[in-house]
Structure formats: C-alpha cells, structure tokens
C-alpha cells in the first residue's frame, strides 16, 4: 500500500481506529482494517502501537479522556464550589448521555472496550474522583461544605450519582423523569454537604 501524503501519527491512527470500530464493532475490527483505512501497511500501525490490545487501550483512553477534559474546565473555574459541583455532575451526565444517544453503536463498542481495558478505566475513574475532590476541598475551605475527608466525600458523591454516569445504566438515561431524578439526587447530596 502506498503511504498517504499526511504523516502517520498516533492521533490519526486513533481517529481511524474509531471509525473502523464504528463500522465493524470490536469483535470484527482488526489492525489490518485500520491500516487499510489509512492507506498504510499494518506494520506502520504497529510502529505506533505494539499490539492490537495497546491500540484498543489507547483508543479507549482517548474516548474516556474527552469526558475528563470537558470536566476539568469546570474544576478550574474560580467560582462557588456548590455551583461547580452541580455543573460538574450535570456535565458528566450530559456527556455520557450524549455519547450513548448520539452514536449508540460506538457507545456499545466502547462499553465492550472499557470492560477489557481495566487500566484505562481505572485511570479515568481516578481522574474523575480527583476532579471531584478538588471541588469538595474548595467547598470545605470556603466553608460551603462540611467534610473532614474531601477525598472520601468525593468518592461518595461519585458513587451516589453512578446511575447518571455509569454506562450500565445507559438505557435509563432517556426515560421520562430522569432529569427530575438527577436533580433530586444532586439536591440531596448538596444539602448533605452543606451540613446545616
């Protein structure tokens, strides 16, 4: 195969892999399919990703990182922690729901990939709880939230809202009333964090 005129980068390979996964699904997608989509040999892909498993883990991490990056901006904002917490939880819910609703085939593919890539998922969950910890800590320092352990509190908030971001609940995200349920859970958590 003739190389394409563009330089082959890891990012281009990951973009092509996502398209191949969308078309073929995780069971049938191969490195040869990715190489074919790029117009290069499969050896060229392997120079960037040593194994098929490494490529699948990288594309999974890239997909998960999109959510983390969208949320990190909220964490960095200089405003009241309660508003940031509410916006962070809302943005997480909307991002996951959008992924599930806008491209259900790719969402199903990534659900399979995340099941096989514990490292990428573990890092993603650690990053999300670290972001939440920063917000909770800021709330404790400002006197808005009562907690002696921001990290444990952040983990509890994350787990308490799992129904609105864990992919195993994706089918519930479009049900009537889910918005009200989400708001009720967040309101309850915020009242508990205020401690007054």
TrEMBL record:
Annotated signal peptide: none
Keywords: DNA-binding, Transcription, Transcription regulation
PROSITE patterns listed in its UniProt record: HTH_TETR_1 (PS01081), HTH_TETR_2 (PS50977)
Keyword match DNA-binding: yes
Residue ranges: DNA binding: 30-49
InterPro entries: DNA-bd_HTH_TetR-type_CS (IPR023772), Homeodomain-like_sf (IPR009057), HTH-type_TetR-like_transc_reg (IPR050109), HTH_TetR (IPR001647), Tet_transcr_reg_TetR-rel_C_sf (IPR036271), TetR_C_27 (IPR041478)
Superkingdom as given in the UniProt entry: Bacteria
Span of domain HTH tetR-type: 7-67
Gene3D superfamilies linked to this entry: Tetracycline Repressor, domain 2
Protein name according to UniProt: TetR family transcriptional regulator
Species this chain originates from: Streptomyces viridiviolaceus
């Amino acid at each position: 195969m003739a190389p394409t005129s563009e330089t082959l980068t890891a990012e281009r390979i990951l973009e092509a892999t996502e398209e191949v996964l969308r078309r073929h699904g995780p069971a049938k997608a191969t490195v040869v399919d990715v190489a074919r989509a790029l117009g290069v040999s499969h050896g060229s892909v392997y120079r960037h990703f040593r194994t098929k498993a490494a490529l699948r883990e990288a594309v999974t991490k890239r997909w998960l990182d999109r959510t983390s990056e969208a949320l990190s901006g909220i964490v960095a904002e200089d405003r009241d922690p309660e508003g940031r917490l509410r916006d962070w939880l809302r943005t997480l819910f909307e991002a996951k729901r959008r992924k599930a609703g806008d491209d259900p085939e790719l969402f199903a593919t990534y659900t399979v990939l995340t099941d096989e890539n514990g490292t990428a998922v573990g890092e993603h969950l650690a990053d999300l709880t670290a972001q939440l910890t920063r917000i909770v800590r800021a709330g404790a320092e400002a006197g808005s939230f009562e907690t002696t352990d921001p990290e444990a509190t952040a983990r509890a908030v994350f787990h308490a809202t799992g129904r609105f971001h864990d992919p195993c609940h994706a089918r519930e995200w479009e049900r009537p009333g889910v918005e009200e349920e989400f708001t009720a859970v967040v309101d309850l958590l915020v009242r508990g964090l205020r401690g007054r």
